[in-house]
Amino acid sequence: MVTNNISQELFIARQPIFDGKLRIYGYELLFRDADMESANVINGEVATSKVIIDGFSLAQKGIPKKTYFFINFPYKSLISGIAEILPKETTVVEILEDVIIDRDILRACIDLKKKGYLLALDDFIGHVTNKKLFKLIDIVKIDILNMEVATIEKLILLVKNLNPTIKILVEKVEDRKIFNITKKMGADLFQGYFFQKPELVKGKSIPPTTITKLKLLAFFSKKNISDNLDELENIIKTDLSLSYKLLKYINSPAIGLANKIKKIRQAINLLGYNNVVKWCRIFLLSTINPSDRGIEIIRQSTIRGYFLTGLIDFIKTDHTEDELFMLGLFSLLDALLDQSMEDILALLPLDDTIKDTLLGKKTPLYPYLKLIEKQERGDWKGVLNLLKELKMPLDLVSSVYANALGETDKLFKANSN
């Protein structure tokens, strides 16, 4: 049944969509209500309304205001006009593949277009049941996973012939090769996990500036340095950009201090050692790859870090909260640096369990990293199975993930001011 506290029990995944230059275009939002194991919802339309309202608000945390959000709409939700409660400036109404295109749907789509909404058609496989619809559609999505290249090209050409103004969004893009192929075919937008995977080039080495930053990260990875504030202060002071950003961060509206802070030591004392360490890691990673793709990887890594620390009371481990945060933050380093994880970890004196987990080995921490990965993908069945295996409450993931989004939003807002 639908609970009154759905915002705290809402499962959500946010998947980035890039343009051909790997700039963020938008995000697809995948929702599942708290009653994941049952379809017995008293009023499906009321439940859908609550999910869209609460989920949309939650998913926007930390995202620029002009970013598009793709929302899946089934038949009844489309004709009921629910979409109009969402902002037209940033909402893409995604028509699910099983929606029957009848007069009511066409009327609803015409109405949405007149009001300024973008319309997307999900999972197009070449069946043109109603050409009138294609005159209204702005974006067509093609799921290319396990699809022959010739078939992909045929579908793209078909859509362009029907309406040359339509943008083609290819989803399930798993590697750089297929990204380049579909881009040449005329695809405009791209969704998939290619952005999380490194583009390994034989003989490519990490630039010296990056090595320096990784050595700083290595310092923060060492144990028993929390009392050595002098060394921490000196590291920050020797990097002009780092010290400037730290003072800018602590004096930002997101922190909300009454008096302006001018000294590094004062900033460290006020924020606390653990918070400064987290901030430094995120800042340093962000300077390694400042592209939209890089920023999205860092944002997702930060969410992972806060997610894992949010589970610390449920994880049977001797590892500290800081180490769990680091595990999440470093989990996409290979994609950020376009290097193998093995080569990167060789530079970092990390705990063996943390290292092994990052390398994909079945450590005690491995299931928790897999949990956030499945959450990101919207693999709700996988989430449920892991929660049962880990003996964790069903509503935990949504509340911890919501908090992780909020904490990440706070950091990124302050750094963007």
The level of helicity is: 40-55%
Number of domains: 2
Rg from alpha-carbon coordinates: 23 Å
- Note the overall shape: globular
Structural description of this entry:
The N terminus is likely disordered. The chain is an alpha/beta fold. Helix content is 50%, strand content 11%. Strand 1 and strand 2 form a beta hairpin. It has two domains: 191 residues, TIM Barrel (Alpha-Beta Barrel), CATH 3.20.20; 209 residues, Hypothetical protein af1432, CATH 1.10.3210. The protein is globular, with a radius of gyration of 23 Å. The longest helix is centred in the last third of the chain and has 21 residues. Helix 7 runs antiparallel to helix 11 and helix 12 crosses helix 19. An eight-stranded mixed β-barrel has the order 1-2-3-4-5-6-7-8, surrounded by seven helices. The protein contains 19 helices and eight strands.
Compose a concise summary of this entry.
The chain has 417 residues and is an alpha/beta fold. It has 19 helices and eight strands.
Keywords, separated by commas or semicolons:
2 domains; globular; 50% helix; Hypothetical protein af1432; eight-stranded mixed beta barrel; 417 residues; alpha/beta
What is the strand and helix layout of this fold?
Blueprint lengths: L10 E9 L4 E9 L11 H16 L8 E6 L1 H6 L10 E5 L7 H12 L3 E4 L9 H4 L4 E5 L5 H14 L4 E5 L4 H10 L3 E3 L16 H14 L7 H9 L2 H11 L13 H8 L1 H16 L3 H19 L10 H10 L2 H5 L3 H5 L6 H7 L7 H12 L2 H11 L5 H21 L1
Parallel strand pairs: 2-3, 3-4, 4-5, 5-6, 6-7, 7-8
Antiparallel strand pairs: 1-2, 1-8
